[in-house]
Automatic annotation (TrEMBL):
SUPFAM superfamilies: L domain-like. Keywords: Leucine-rich repeat, Repeat. InterPro entries: Leu-rich_rpt, Leu-rich_rpt_typical-subtyp, LRR_dom_sf. Pfam families: LRR_8 (PF13855). PANTHER family: IG(IMMUNOGLOBULIN) AND LRR(LEUCINE RICH REPEAT) DOMAINS, LEUCINE RICH REPEAT NEURONAL 4. This is Chaoptin-like. It comes from the Eukaryota. It comes from Frankliniella occidentalis (Western flower thrips).
Length: 672
C-alpha cells in the first residue's frame, strides 16, 4: 500500500490504456506528473485512497473513464475535468462533496463533458443542487445521486437537454415531495429510484408523459396519499414499488393511461396501512396489472368495482396478512386471468358457495391461517386449473363430498385443522392427480385399508401429530410412488415391519416420538432421511440402509453411536441420549459425515482423537463438557481437519481461549 507515486514511475509505459490504483493510501503529492503524461490512457481507477483534491493538471486529456470514489474530496474537481473532453464515465461517489451549484461549477464549467454518459455522485453530502448544475451534460444516460442529503429537486434540473437519460437514482435522500415540475421531458427515462426518502405525497401529474419509463421505486417513504392523476401517460410502466409507506386509501384514480395489456404492471403496495380500496371512476379504463401485492395492510373488504378495475390482466393477487373476513358470491368472478390468489393470515370465517366461480385460470389458492370452520359442498368444484390448495391452520372438521369435484389438484394441505378422519370422498374426486397431501396436526384416529386407493400418484404424505394408533398392514399398498412419509408424534401400535413393504421407493421417513422401543426393520433401499428422535431406542437402527444420508436419533436412550456402517451418511444427531464415552472408533464407520450434533450428553470420557476419522466434518454442535476441560475440548476439535462451523453451549472464557489457540483459523462460524 503506497501513499505516493514517483513522478517517473510510468516512464516507458506511455501506451498503457488502463491503470488501476484502487485501495492504496495515495495523497496529492507527485501523482499528477506520474499520470498526466499517459497520453493514451483511457481508464483510470483511484478509488478508496486518501485524495483530498485532484489538481488541474493531474489527468490526461485521453481519459474516457475515471473512478475517484471513496476518497476525501469535498468538491468536484472541475479544473481537472475540463481537460477530459472524451470522458464518458465518472464515479465520484463515497466522498464528502456538499453541493453542486452554478457557483461551484462556474457556469459552463462542465461544458467540456458533453460526452459524459455515466455519472455517479452517490454517498456524498450533497444538500444543494443548482437548477442548471447538470445542464451541459447533454449525453447523460445514467445519474446516481443516492445517499445524499437532498431535500428537494430544483425545477429545471433535468429537462429536454437530457433526452438520453435512461436511469435516475435519487434514493435515500431527504426528498419530501414528488412535484410535477421536477421530472419533465425525459423521453428516454426507463428507471426512476426514489426509495428511502421522506416523500409524504405524490402530487397530481408528478410523473407524466414519460413514454419509456418502466420501473419506479417509491418504497420506504412516508407516502400517505396518492393524488388523483399522480401517474399519467406512462404506457411502458412495468414495475411500481410503493411498499412500506403510509397509504390508508388506495385508489385507481391515481393512474391514467398507465401500462399496456400486452405488458401489464407489477404493483407492490404491501406493508402500508391501506383499509379502503377504490376504483376511482376507472370503469372503462382499467389499470393493466399482472401482479398486485396488497399484503400486510388493514383491508377488511374486497370491492367488486376495484377488482373490475384491475382484473383485465391480473395474474397474481396477494392479500395475505389483512383483515378480510368473508368472500361473497361472484366477487372474484371478474378475475378470469387470475392464476394465484393469496389470502393467508386473514380473518376468513366463511366463503360463499362457488366464491371462486369465474376464476377459470386459478392454479394456486392459499387460504392458510384463517378461521374457516366449514366448506360448502361445491366450494372449489369445477376449478379445472387448480393445482395447489392450502387450507392449513384453519378450523375444518371435514371436507364435504363435492368440494373438490372437477379439480386436478397436485398439492392439498389440510394440516393444523380439526379433522377427525381422512376426507376419503373428497380425495377421491381429485385423487388421480394428487402428488402431495398434508394432514398433520389434526385429530385423525383411524385409517382404513382403502383410504388411499384413489391417490395412486401420491409422492408426499404427512400424517404427523395426529392420534393414530393402529394402521392396517396394507394401508400404503396403493402408494407405490411415495417418496416422503411422516408419521411422527402419533401413538402408533402398528406392525411397522409389514407397513413399509409396499413403499420401496421411500426417500424420507419420519417416525419421531411414536413410542418405539426398538428400531423396526426398514426394507427401504432408497431411504435418504430417517427421523427416529423422541423414542425409547437403546440401540441404533441395524438394517441395511445403503442410501441413508440424514439420521436423527436425538432424545432416545442410546448408550453408543451406530456401530453399523452407513457409507453415505452426512448428518447425524445424537443429542439427549445416554452416551457416556466416545473414542476414535465411535464414528469410524461414518466416513462421509459432515454434520454431527452431540448436545446434552452425560459424557464422562471423550478421547482427543474421537473426531479424527471424520475427515469431511464441517459442522459440530455440542457442549463445553466440564469433565473434558477447555484444553481437552480444544484438542478434540483440532483433530477434525475440515471443521468450519461450531455451536457450543456453556461456552466459558477458558473454552474460548482454548478454541482460539487450537482451531480458530479454520472455524468460520461459532456460537455459544
Amino acid at each position: 500500500m503506497r501513499d505516493s507515486l514517483p513522478s517517473q514511475c510510468f516512464n516507458g509505459t506511455l501506451a498503457v490504456r488502463e491503470l488501476r490504483l484502487d485501495q492504496n493510501a495515495l495523497r496529492v503529492r507527485k501523482e499528477p506528473a506520474a499520470v498526466a503524461n499517459l497520453s493514451r490512457l483511457h481508464s483510470l481507477f483511484v478509488a478508496n485512497n486518501r485524495l483530498s483534491e485532484v489538481p488541474d493538471d493531474a489527468l490526461p486529456a485521453s481519459l474516457r473513464a475515471l473512478s475517484i470514489s471513496g476518497n476525501d474530496l469535498h468538491f468536484l474537481p472541475v479544473g481537472a475535468l475540463r481537460r477530459c473532453t472524451q470522458l464518458a464515465h465518472l464515479n465520484a461517489g463515497y466522498n464528502g462533496i456538499p453541493r453542486l451549484t452554478d457557483g461551484d461549477l462556474e457556469g459552463p464549467a462542465l461544458r467540456p463533458l458533453e460526452k459524459l454518459r455515466w455519472l455517479a455522485l452517490d454517498n456524498n453530502d450533497i444538500r444543494v443542487l443548482s437548477h442548471d448544475a447538470l445542464r451541459t451534460l447533454i449525453s447523460l444516460e445514467f445519474l446516481n445521486l443516492e445517499d445524499n442529503l437532498l431535500s428537494e429537486l430544483p425545477p429545471g434540473l433535468l429537462g429536454e437537454e437530457h433526452s438520453n437519460l435512461r436511469e435516475l437514482r435519487l434514493g435515500y435522500n431527504m426528498l419530501r415531495a414528488l412535484r410535477p415540475e421536477a421530472l419533465r421531458r425525459l423521453p428516454a427515462l426507463r428507471t426512476l429510484v426514489l426509495a428511502g426518502n421522506h416523500i409524504h405525497m405524490v402530487e397530481s401529474s408528478a410523473l407524466e408523459d414519460l413514454p419509456r419509463l418502466e420501473t419506479v421505486l417509491l418504497r420506504d417513504n412516508k407516502v400517505s396519499k396518492l393524488q388523483p392523476r399522480s401517474f399519467v401517460d406512462l404506457p411502458s410502466l412495468s414495475s411500481l414499488d410503493l411498499h412500506r409507506n403510509r397509504l390508508q386509501v388506495f385508489s385507481l384514480s391515481a393512474f391514467v393511461n398507465v401500462s399496456r395489456p400486452e405488458a401489464p404492471l407489477t404493483l407492490n403496495v404491501s406493508w402500508n396501512r391501506v383499509a379502503e380500496l377504490y376504483s376511482g371512476g376507472t370503469e372503462g379504463a382499467p389499470l393493466y396489472v399482472h401482479t398486485l401485492d396488497l399484503s400486510h395492510n388493514f383491508i377488511a373488504e374486497l370491492k367488486s368495482k376495484f377488482l373490475v378495475g384491475v382484473g383485465a390482466t391480473l395474474r397474481r393477487l396477494h392479500l395475505a396478512h389483512n383483515r378480510v373476513s368473508r368472500l361473497d358470491g361472484l366477487l372474484l368472478g371478474t378475475l378470469q386471468s387470475l392464476e394465484l390468489l393469496s389470502l393467508e393470515h386473514n380473518d376468513l370465517v366463511s366463503m360463499a358457495p362457488r366464491a371462486f366461480q369465474g376464476c377459470d385460470m386459478l392454479q394456486v389458492l392459499l387460504l392458510a391461517h384463517n378461521h374457516v370452520a366449514s366448506l360448502q359442498p361445491e366450494q372449489f368444484a369445477g376449478m379445472a386449473s387448480l393445482r395447489v390448495l392450502d387450507l392449513s391452520h384453519n378450523r375444518l372438521r371435514a371436507v364435504p363430498p363435492g368440494a373438490l369435484s372437477g379439480t386436478a389438484l397436485e398439492r392439498l394441505d389440510l394440516s393444523n385443522n380439526a379433522l377427525g378422519a381422512v376426507p376419503s370422498a373428497a380425495l377421491a374426486e381429485a385423487g388421480a392427480s394428487l402428488r402431495s397431501l398434508g394432514l398433520a396436526s389434526n385429530a385423525i384416529q383411524h385409517l382404513d385399508g382403502t383410504v388411499f386407493l384413489a391417490t395412486p400418484g401420491l409422492c408426499h404424505l404427512d400424517l404427523a401429530d395426529n392420534r393414530l394408533s393402529f394402521l392396517p398392514d396394507n394401508v400404503f399398498s396403493p402408494l407405490g410412488a411415495l417418496l416422503s412419509l411422516r408419521l411422527g408424534r402419533n401413538p402408533l401400535r402398528a406392525n411397522l415391519a409389514e407397513l413399509f413393504h409396499y413403499v420401496h421407493g421411500l426417500r424420507e421417513l419420519g417416525l419421531d416420538a411414536v413410542g418405539l422401543r426398538a428400531a423396526p426393520p426398514l426394507p427401504l433401499p432408497s431411504l435418504v432421511a430417517l427421523n427416529l428422535s423422541g423414542n425409547s431406542l437403546q440401540v441404533a437402527p441395524q438394517g441395511e440402509l445403503p442410501a441413508l444420508r440424514s439420521l436423527h436419533l436425538a432424545a432416545n436412550m442410546l448408550g453408543a453411536p451406530p456401530d453399523k456402517p452407513f457409507p453415505l451418511l452426512s448428518t447425524l444427531d445424537l443429542s439427549n441420549n445416554r452416551i457416556r464415552a466416545l473414542g476414535r472408533t465411535s464414528f469410524s464407520e461414518l466416513p462421509r459425515l459432515r454434520s454431527l450434533a452431540l448436545r446434552s450428553l452425560p459424557l464422562e470420557v471423550m478421547e482427543t482423537d474421537t473426531l479424527q476419522p471424520l475427515r469431511l466434518l464441517r459442522v459440530f454442535e455440542a457442549e463445553a463438557w466440564t469433565g473434558l476441560g477447555p484444553q481437552g475440548l480444544g484438542k478434540v476439535l483440532a483433530s477434525a481437519p475440515s471443521l468450519k462451523s461450531l455451536c457450543l453451549r456453556d461456552y466459558s472464557p477458558q473454552c474460548n481461549h482454548a478454541l482460539h489457540t487450537r482451531c480458530c483459523r479454520r472455524i468460520r462460524g461459532s456460537t455459544g
